Structures are given as structure tokens and as C-alpha cells.
Amino acid sequence: MTDAEIVIVGGGIAGASAAYHLARHGRRVTLLERAEVASGASGVNAGQIDSIGWGDAPDLQAHLTAGSQELFETVQLELGEDIEFRRSGALQVIHTAEQLEFERARVSALCARGHRVELLTIREARSLEPELDPALLGAMYSPLRSQADPVKATRALARLAERGGARVLTGHDVTAVAPRPAGGYEIRTSRGTVVAGALVLAAGAWCSRLGAMLDLDVPIVPVRGQMWATAPVPPSLFQTMSSAESALAWHRDRGGAPPDLTIRDGVRVTRHLYGRQRRSGEIVFGGDREQAGWSTAPDPAGIAVNRGHAIEALPFLAGLPVARTWAGLMPFSLDGRPLIGRIPSRQDLWIVGGLASSGFGRGPMAGKLLADALHTGTPAPVLAEADPARCVRELAASREGGR
Ligand SMILES: Cc1cc2nc3c(=O)[nH]c(=O)nc-3n(C[C@H](O)[C@H](O)[C@H](O)COP(=O)(O)OP(=O)(O)OC[C@H]3O[C@@H](n4cnc5c(N)ncnc54)[C@H](O)[C@@H]3O)c2cc1C
Q1: Which end of the chain, N or C, is surrounded by fewer C-beta atoms within 10 Å?
Q2: Centre of ligand 1 from the C-alpha of residue 154, in Å
């Protein structure tokens, strides 16, 4: 049996960042990961980092996005880790007059709140991204949006945590967790038992399974995201790319619990698009979000729809065959908001999760905010919105309530 002051379960971007920041606070922290670091969503995502700046009155979203972007920058520029970070900027392309009106209003509202976005004509957009279809109606440009390699970035944070004194134990599958009468937790793993004073759940889509080990209903569900890639090609795509279609659809109707899916109950409600060119030369695109249980088998029909959407924006992609496809599980909370903080019905139990479809870009700051709250005992005021108390329940009570 080994012991730790704090155990974090999950070696994704959220757990790795929490470990790094807790180690920086001088805390004795152990991270338990059942496979390799970045073997969950953090290793298979598109690598887009969505920041539009802090704005004049930073809310939780601004903290998570702008704060994470600064942390990625620090890891790349100051801490000696090449994570393929670059502030590339991003273009959200506009296909219809309706989308144009929506984006015009959105850009003006965001600018009024001090965010950095701009509405470009298609000519202006094509000066940044020459392969864009000239028939498009324009694009929203976000100069601060960035990109990085997901596996490299997540592993860099875990390595930095180790350098700071954290233990990172891969191949440790947590199979049972029990509170100890004297306080703290006994955590059984596939490779022995660890005793901890405090426990942090950072297990992504699997947080609900960890919660169930503690008789808690942690309402985070797996949502399958899937992607495809071309073979490496010469530099052709410089920004990160998306489309206004889903932005408008979800503005009109977020669709239920969890919100913002592309396919609900087997029926497509919108098309969503994100993509970029990696340093390797591969062009990667994805977009679908569907509740498909725990399956990580890509759905070829969805890949075809997504590729068609990408070709509408960037016609040259029609000449590049799909070289590989993959899928992963995004951790969606039922109300769409993250869970970052202490779980009040248990002693010394914390969570950083529910980062949904943008947790790569928000994970570094989510881990930092969690680490700071745990270390000081006082959560940052912006974490009120992410308070787990709003939704984590006793499992027995949830069953009685019909969930
Ligand atoms: C296809 C796809 C594209 C995406 N694109 C983007 C994007 O471009 N930009 C963006 O910001 N976000 C994107 N996301 C979302 C983003 O990847 C996630 O929100 C984020 O990675 C979640 O991080 P996490 O650390 O919470 O979870 P994860 O990365 O899933 O990490 C959880 C870890 O916990 C481990 N674990 C689970 N159970 C146990 C256990 N019992 N014992 C020990 N370890 C355990 C898992 O093995 C896993 O490594 C995408 C996701 C997908 C799937």
C-alpha cells in the first residue's frame, strides 16, 4: 500500500494540469491513469484552442479559454516543451445570408464585451486562407484562437508535473474507492492500493463510473466525437477552421440534456465542423457529437457528411482521400457546464470534469482553477458557475427520482 496527500484519477489534460499545478503548490500528489497519459479524449481531439480573449468582464468561459491559451503558450515558449502550439487564428465560415446576419450580431455583441473577433468579407478571409471557396459569404475571424498537438500537450503537462515532484502512475486502473473511517480514501487499482487524504476525479467521460464507486450520481455522459484525416500534404491550411451552421442551429435550440449534439436520438439536427492542418502535414477534420454509449467506433455515414461540409468550405479537400478515421468520448455534463470544485456530500472529494467538446482548449485552466481551490480551500469566484453541488447527487436518491 502506498500513500499520497492527493490522488488524481485520470491522465487527460484536466488531470495532468491539476497534477502540475498542485505540485507547483508543493502538494504531494499522485496521478493514476489506467492506460497511458492522453489515452482518452485528450489524445484524440482536433487540437483547437478556442480563445477570444479575456474581455472586459471575464466569466468562467473567458477564464477557461483565455487562461488555458496563456498556459499553452507558457508550456511552449518558456517551459521547454514543444507541443506544436501556435496562435494561428481561426475562421468560422459563413454559407448563407441567415448565417451572415447571425454572425454580424454575434461579432458586434462580442466586441462590445471586449472580445477579439472580426467579421471578414470572403475576399479578406481568402487573403488568410486562400483555399476557401470564393462563393462563401464571409467568415468570423478570431485572431487569438490557437492550436497544439493534443498528445504532446497533455504529456508535456504530465511531465512538468513529474518534474515538480508529482508521481504519475500509468497502467493503474482504479477499480474501487472507499472512504476511510479516519478520513481520506482507499483507492484500489489493478496494481495495488493507494491511500490518499484527498481525491480528485478527472476521469473525463468515465467520471460517472468513478462516482458510482462512491455511491454518487455524477451526471457526465459520454458523447462520441469523430474525425478523419488526409495523408500528409504540403502546407495548405493555416488557421483552425469551423462553420457557422452549427453555431446558428445551437443558438436557436441547444436541444436538451446534454445540449449541443449534432445527432439526437439517431436523427441529425445540424452539421458541425472543425479542422486544421497538423505540423505533420495531415489535414484533420471532425464535427459530429452523438450519444452512442461507450462506442469509439467511427460512424462512416457521419464522416461522409462531415467531409462534404468541409469540401463546401474548402473545395481542394475533394481531391484528398480519407487516410484514416477515429473517434473518442467527450465528457458532457447534462446542463453543458463544467464541474470544477469540491463535491460537498463527501469529505475531501473534488472533481474537474464535464469539459465537453472544448476541453482540450479549456483543460489547462480548469486543472489550475481546481488545484488553486483545493490548495487554498477557497474557490475562485468564477467557479460558482461550475459548482458540482448543483448536480452531483446520492446514487440512491437519483434512482428513486427516476434517473
Ligand atoms: C474527436 C474529438 C475532437 C475534439 N476536438 C477538440 C478540440 O479541437 N478542441 C477542444 O478544446 N476539445 C476538443 N475535444 C474535447 C476534448 O478532447 C475533451 O473535452 C478533453 O480532452 C477532456 O479532457 P479530460 O482530461 O476531462 O478527459 P480525458 O482526456 O478523457 O481523460 C480522462 C482519463 O481518465 C482515464 N480513466 C478513466 N477511468 C479511469 C480509471 N478507472 N482509472 C484510471 N484512469 C481512468 C482515461 O483513461 C483517460 O485517460 C474533442 C474530443 C473528441 C473526442
Answers
A1: N
A2: 10
